[in-house]
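Re: [help] complex structure
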Amino acid sequence: MRLCGLWEEVELPMMNQEHDDIFEIGGKKLTSRLFTGTGKYSSDALIPDVLVKSGAQVITVALRRVDFDADTDNVMKHIPKHVILLPNTSGARTADEAVRIARLARAAGCGNWIKIEVISDSTYLLPDGYETAKATEILAKEGFVVFPYINPDLMVARSLVNAGASAVMPLGSPIGSNRGLRTREMIRILIDEISLPIIVDAGIGRPSQACEAMEMGAAACLVNTAISSAGDPVTMAMAFGEAVKAGRRAYLAGPGVVNEKASASSPLTGFLK
Amino acid sequence: MRLCGLWEEVELPMMNQEHDDIFEIGGKKLTSRLFTGTGKYSSDALIPDVLVKSGAQVITVALRRVDFDADTDNVMKHIPKHVILLPNTSGARTADEAVRIARLARAAGCGNWIKIEVISDSTYLLPDGYETAKATEILAKEGFVVFPYINPDLMVARSLVNAGASAVMPLGSPIGSNRGLRTREMIRILIDEISLPIIVDAGIGRPSQACEAMEMGAAACLVNTAISSAGDPVTMAMAFGEAVKAGRRAYLAGPGVVNEKASASSPLTGFLK
Amino acid sequence: MRLCGLWEEVELPMMNQEHDDIFEIGGKKLTSRLFTGTGKYSSDALIPDVLVKSGAQVITVALRRVDFDADTDNVMKHIPKHVILLPNTSGARTADEAVRIARLARAAGCGNWIKIEVISDSTYLLPDGYETAKATEILAKEGFVVFPYINPDLMVARSLVNAGASAVMPLGSPIGSNRGLRTREMIRILIDEISLPIIVDAGIGRPSQACEAMEMGAAACLVNTAISSAGDPVTMAMAFGEAVKAGRRAYLAGPGVVNEKASASSPLTGFLK
Amino acid sequence: MRLCGLWEEVELPMMNQEHDDIFEIGGKKLTSRLFTGTGKYSSDALIPDVLVKSGAQVITVALRRVDFDADTDNVMKHIPKHVILLPNTSGARTADEAVRIARLARAAGCGNWIKIEVISDSTYLLPDGYETAKATEILAKEGFVVFPYINPDLMVARSLVNAGASAVMPLGSPIGSNRGLRTREMIRILIDEISLPIIVDAGIGRPSQACEAMEMGAAACLVNTAISSAGDPVTMAMAFGEAVKAGRRAYLAGPGVVNEKASASSPLTGFLK
Amino acid sequence: MEIQVNGQMEHVDDGLTLSDYLKHKKLESEAVVVELNLAIIPKENYPTCNLNDKDILEIVRFVGGG
Amino acid sequence: MEIQVNGQMEHVDDGLTLSDYLKHKKLESEAVVVELNLAIIPKENYPTCNLNDKDILEIVRFVGGG
Amino acid sequence: MEIQVNGQMEHVDDGLTLSDYLKHKKLESEAVVVELNLAIIPKENYPTCNLNDKDILEIVRFVGGG
Amino acid sequence: MEIQVNGQMEHVDDGLTLSDYLKHKKLESEAVVVELNLAIIPKENYPTCNLNDKDILEIVRFVGGG
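Output below.
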């Protein structure tokens, strides 16, 4: 369907050769655990390279009224066909508005994935967990694959499990702040207590932070601003792709124990005794 | 010379294809900024895979008396020929002992790189900056490529510059502790003030920590215990290789600014207004 | 009314002489911004000293069925008359149960303050924000002075403002964990955005953490486990009393700016030039 | 001798009544573990109140050439007689310069305490451990009570013990930066390994940070910039006095254990079961 | 008659008042709060509050809590 | 007739279909989603969907977002 | 005669004692410490300490410092 | 004769060369570095290097280290 990913020539992302660690979600099999977005690029023409270099296979978009006065570029032109579209409900302040946006997004014919974003706070853009859970329940019943964006709260996450969400997306810090994993403690608890995949969304500012989230056991990370606001977005995208893989691998490999004191890495016998 | 890397069949490390960001040091051109070690492996037979998967091109070894009673395996059998050997002076408690070990190491005929480690504290294995600087001066004059291991101290680092060191290797936390970048503040200052490459050595426990060190502008990281003590050392080695590349790339790309408040990644116009 | 604070001889807490910084809440004028609890003491006989030494003027208690088999000591015997009682609704898993407990607590005749605690998670004892808001609305209408205990969530906090809460009590980390201000980021945002007093409750393990919360602008701290589980609870209580005062004072005094580099505290002219 | 503390009327600092925890050093018995300084005050007339409110009993000064052109106020006018003077050697770049300044300071007749500061780095004002140790050895032999200021380095600290220092003063972060305990890890190790009192000097920006240093087992803290650069220095001084006492008390009381999960502070039996 | 107190069935004499019951249990009325068939009983009514067969009593008190 | 499009009143010719309107606005039907009086119109119905006076149209598209 | 004080050359009358010089500079001897040709002068010696041509004086005092 | 090897006294036949000794110990000369009376011996000299009574030998090799 032509509204979806339009960009034709795309080499297979370098980093997705391995098939040993598949992330299955919403009926898809993903080899990359980095989700990215299309917001705030100096030029949307960077997006194809960002996707190729990062290896991301899922990308977010927003839905807005057509502006007849401004002849804006069509972001879809830059999204490769094979990439999974994850429309968000940004702009919604209530569950009803989120549901309305989700249905319009699905009518575009690019699939049934939806990131629920219900926000009424304009300073920190923090989500409304209760309205998000209400929208999740309605949309999951309608067959959407629902990715709710929340403040990390165990009770809200539990309600999302019951509401039929496909994953839980806690924020690391406020949207676009690049402040990193300030909510580390609660994300750790969600990973520990919630059966759904935990995808850290919002606030991740540097690859090391995405890497740490993955080491903690997050299923994936969604990174947009840290890439689009970087000096060189394409190189930063590649860095995030590598960092997410590194963190996931470290989680699977099992880190060594942390000690209070030192533990020699060379034989402790003195050199000549 | 057969004492050096003996292991023959080695495919080129997957991750070293790119030649856009060369780390030149000691007359060598490195494409990987991860140094690793040979200490504390359950089986030294893991070392070839660790090197291939991590892409590391520099590896540390220690020097010890031959033990006639124990018929120990020869670690050199497992080190590929193309890998650069970085003997350390572990066991030395004074500059003189470090110099003696360095000369013996060079007599082995595997090159003139030496990591100076002068340690008299057995609880935290913290290095002696003054003795290290003395040994550095002597060995640099003798033509060694000297990598001194120090507690991050600006004045000691300055004395190492004057002594002819090729790099400065501050610790992130005590050897083998896996505690990470606890000395972040002083490493930041060394990177800011010292003209030599800063290679973070000791204490790095997880790939996210190596990634952060590289984002800060470190020239490289040396990681041994975090790999050899991991549940799956080969996979962890690959993770560190990716994380170091990611951090370096992020440093080159230039991270976006960090904000106290949020900054929308989707258009701030409400959906239908 | 004899069910309330029964303990007679109490000298005025040493640290409450000053009346320059009154905390007015629920119709009371408090000179101490440390709230404490009565849980988990090796001996309840420590409570009077804890109150005197800490200067705390508000103390929490729980409500439970009388156990006819166990002849347990009456905790009220140890609570000085002048101390304000803050019963909690621990044990409640829903808004209705919290409301029932609150009404029983008020029927005891020791005032109309209530700390709402609605918890269904038994591993991390994290509160249910939605049920807490429902109970708050009902009880505020009935004339209670309501202190809701929540996970720091801006939207939940806003709903509590509308529900008529007298303060908002975000947790620093899980109850009794002594993990400190792990939710620092969100507490900072609540203080910034919410008009009600923010009282940090749960998780504070050391005086420095309570001090930091006050420096950030918290109106008060509630500390129980860190005192009752200390080696010397009475001395630790005094430490918390001082730390909370220190942090409040620092907040009022206005800390100096933080600089990336150094700034000499002695004249920068060399000694003899 | 009139060059020393000149300021007459001084009430006994409110917080020094207790004599249960004396800090004996340099032949003096201190009841306060907060040291302060005289640098960077908008008006030196604030110093007497700062001392009274903070309870500090030790204060630093610098030595400089008399400037015949500028008729500067005599800082000594503002220092109460009973306060112990701790001249520093700021301006010294070598051990010899520090020794020269120390001898001149002693000739002033205000006692034999000296804070050794040897600094050649003008960006971060980081001390030279080796020169500091040399000066310490000379001055200790001459009967000075020596307080060397260092970057936290275990080997340097050991050399100071051997050199006859009376305490070791590691920095928390660069002088005047208000950045806090960035060197926490190494300060922890010094406290653990060094027999001398550890006095955290430089970088402490807020009372909570001084409190934490004391909780860790520091013997005292020296705070100047955080007080003199505060909006209200006298109130901030009082806050630091309280925070240092709180941290010391917490150290003596013994904090409770830190748990990964929650541990109920109210009975875990549900309310009605 | 049979009454349920704090979840346990109990046999007590007929015509007992709440005050009688508490006295019999050696509980000071000031130290407890009582809910009779889900309604909170004001302390002043304890002497006049008659207990009947099948009554459900909840008798609670304050305990240590955080 | 008068219709409301994305919040603005607009005068258009009578008997216009949704396809006509989009063509007149130079919008590819594939590139947008249309809500007519709060009901989403399937793309295949655009040619047969007649616009009437006072209709309320919302025409939306995907844009960059995170 | 010429003496150097705190790095500056200065012309002063011959036969001046250190006390005279400080008085002339309006400095209380108690408020300063004096180094004459690198030797610290005890305060009690100021009245008897004669200054000579080419003497090098350092006169220092305490100032605010951290 | 008596020589000291890696800290242990050892009795060996007279007129032994370093090569002989290493062979007798089953050590490949390429796999070790030898210090004789504090002087490092170049590998090419092993065959011609005679051991004498009271000689002090240090024979070292690379081992795993970080």
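The two ends of chain F are 39 Å apart (CA to CA).
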